[in-house]
Design brief:
The structure is a homodimer. By secondary structure, chain A is of the alpha/beta class. The first copy, chain A, folds into 2 domains: 112 residues, Urease, subunit C, domain 1 (Roll), CATH 2.30.40.10; 281 residues, Metal-dependent hydrolases (TIM Barrel, Alpha-Beta Barrel), CATH 3.20.20. Chain A is built from 15 helices and 17 strands. In chain A, a hairpin with a 2-residue loop joins strand 15 and strand 16. The longest helix of chain A is centred in the first third of the chain and has 17 residues. The relative contact order of chain A is 0.16. At the A-B interface, helix 2, helix 9, helix 11, helix 14 and helix 15 of A face helix 3, helix 10, helix 12, helix 15 and helix 16 of B.
């Protein structure tokens, strides 16, 4: 058992209230939150928070971790040129071991920025799972299948293999997007989802072009089309959703779907600003993700929370558009729920001990008026002093305890990157 | 003398090329950049950069440092309510000593995020100067006078007092804005600027309302109006400039003025996105600033560089809109020149030793494809390991060497904030 005491706690169990008290972990779960009994049990470790903040860790509800090798590889170029000349040809050369190393590099960044779970759509789920499990981090694999119906067997096989793979690794049905899949493949996935009572996820309406071309091809938007196909009979969600219109958002609300917004990537690639304010008002569930490191380029949920709220102010021309607290929830509890991690969302007894400690004694968080809004508007990963996943401390005070030696990962990643991109 | 060796150096003397080599400082100036002679002199200290990056420090070309006490005080409220109910009434209660303490708090944030100079428009220049000099940081005071012509005497007196106040502190003529000053005051300032051959600065076209109301009042935009008044005969610049139109930008170009953009503040307050891409294409000098901590809320030039470029992509619907390198220059050399710090802009022999060290061995900056663009798109203040101003190391590896004890500053700032805001 580990005891955190003398701190402030943002449980997110009800609202964004910060309370004083202690938190105990027992194995991978939370054993106590709040007031402690007079008789304390024996602990492996007791951590005096010295007034600092304990809160649920960030969960990154949309990423492609293995793309770290293309970070800052091709900047300041138009989207289509970037994708077709600077991403796809290089991804085609990746080996499973490459993805393993590049995912390790991403994990170092996740842990140091307080993220303990990634909803990871990438090429080789087995090696992504391996890197994650070895580090003690949580991953929900999401299939990103594209192409024709013949790929349904591979998808079903992966689903069977990974759905209950490990306490830290599960799997969700998904496909890349409408514009990269055949109608037959989508129908097969819908059948599978219905048979398995499984939620389904995909990129959706990320660019205006994609959204419009779907309408031309299918007579309706991606969201309406997917609902009609029966893809979402057991829930799920969509990534990006920049161009979701009112009817699309109604589909999301009706089916209890999660909109996973990626504001940094959408801004950098000039895709636009997702209608998060409308979503929130209309009751659509919101989560946040970074998208891959080639298009973001950071894997930093602080940035997403911040952009999530300030870009809405630009979009709506209203300095009070989307409250900061909504984005804090979308980056933590919301993201966890979006990826099916229903016991990793809040700090409550019996939940998984996936949490972070924020050092409030940094100048950017002083003076203390409003801790939660302060985190969104001026917090950053430099404020994180501890990251715990499933009850294990994986990062503390600048040091990693996840079995990786950063310099070795950097050297290996650099060597492989050089080979792939030369 | 201090020797930095075994590193990479971004001098910004010509372009954004990173070179290998050494840098020596002698007193407050740079004594060598590049290759070292065989015979080395004696150094006070030798710093092995281990391949990490030495670059010009950030300069914050628009801020109100003393406003730290209102950081996160009133979030998610509309602009007018925020300004008139949550800012002005509380600022009216500030003492000189309050500003001194709140500026110290800002300085801690500047130094830990690699900023060595602030162009500071706030209420009590004397105490801002004192806090800055005591810490070894550079400040260019900018008058923010408002009201009627009777204030010209106070402005002239401050100008005389502070223009050559200290090697670390100078002063620039300025006034708050068109909408808070009388025509008579602006004419007096123009006369003073002409007599003193001095540049002039002010908030300009920050909001659409301000821009439009100036046109209604004066028959032309603020930029055209100020040029007609002769305010800029000896240069200067304007802060924000979100609503500068083509004619306004022509005024800026014609007079060699600096547009100091504050993208974070403009986004958070829903003011809009400044036309930086147009400015750059048309040859307007660009600099970046944070604006005050009440509207930003961070004092972090990494955020400004990042937003400076990605918001242009949204604005122009073009993923190649404004190059990242332009914003890196605007946050360093550009900002220095905007505030008249012509010997603090680049790393060249004879220039002031105002510089920072970036640890490139952080996961967010790996692998290394393009160091400079990497800094803009995924760099952050956690990557800064050393901040030097005028040849003195003021921050290194998380510790301050500027004479301030952070916990004492936080406690004092919190106490005073409580008194002021209760």
């Amino acid at each position: 058992m580990i005891r955190f005491y003398n701190g402030r706690i943002l449980t997110l169990a009800n609202d964004c209230t910060v309370q004083r008290g202690a938190l105990w972990t027992d194995g991978d779960r939370i054993a106590l939150v709040g007031e402690e009994p007079e008789q304390l049990p024996a602990f492996e470790r007791e951590i005096d928070l010295q007034g600092n903040l304990l809160m649920p860790s960030f969960k990154n509800a949309h990423t492609h971790s293995g793309m770290t090798f293309l970070r800052a590889f091709a900047e300041d170029v138009p989207l289509q040129e970037w994708l077709f000349e600077k991403v796809f040809p290089y991804e085609a050369k990746l080996s499973e071991e490459d993805v393993y190393v590049f995912t390790q590099l991403a994990i170092l960044e996740y842990l140091s920025s307080g993220t303990t779970a990634a909803f990871d759509m990438y090429l080789t789920p087995g090696t992504t799972a391996q890197a994650s499990i070895e580090c003690g981090m949580r991953t929900v694999l999401c299939s990103g299948v594209s192409g024709d119906a013949e790929d349904i067997d591979r998808l079903y096989q992966q689903y069977q293999q990974f759905r209950n793979y490990h306490p830290l690794v599960t799997y969700r049905l998904g496909f890349h997007a409408e514009y990269t899949s055949s109608p037959a493949l989508r129908r097969e996935i819908a059948k599978l989802a219905q048979a398995e009572h499984a939620p389904v996820y995909m990129h959706i309406s990320e660019t205006q072009k994609e959204h419009q071309e779907c309408i031309e091809r299918n007579g309706c938007s991606p969201a309406v089309h997917f609902e009609e196909l029966g893809l979402w009979e057991h829930g799920g969600g969509g990534f990006h959703g920049v161009w979701l219109d009112e009817a699309d958002r109604a589909v999301f609300r009706r089916n209890g779907l999660w909109l996973v917004s990626c504001p940094a990537s959408n801004a950098k690639l000039a895709s636009g600003i997702a209608p998060l304010t409308d979503c929130e008002r209309e009751g659509v569930h919101l989560a946040l993700g970074t998208d891959g490191p080639a298009s973001n380029n950071a894997l930093d949920m602080f940035r997403e929370m911040y952009l999530g709220t300030v870009l809405q102010r630009i979009r709506c021309n209203d300095a009070a558009a989307l409250p900061a607290t909504s984005m804090l929830k979308a980056a933590t509890a919301g993201a966890a729920r979006a990826m099916g991690l229903w016991d990793c969302d809040t700090l409550e007894v019996g939940k998984q001990a996936d949490l972070i400690v924020i050092d409030l004694t940094h100048p950017n968080l002083q003076p203390e008026h409003d801790i939660v809004r302060g985190l969104v508007f001026s917090g950053g990963k430099q404020d994180i002093t501890l990251t715990m996943c499933a009850g294990k401390i994986l990062y503390e005070n600048g040091e990693y305890f996840c079995g990786l030696y950063p310099q070795a990962v950097y050297a290996e990643a650099q060597k492989r990157t050089k080979r792939l991109t030369q």
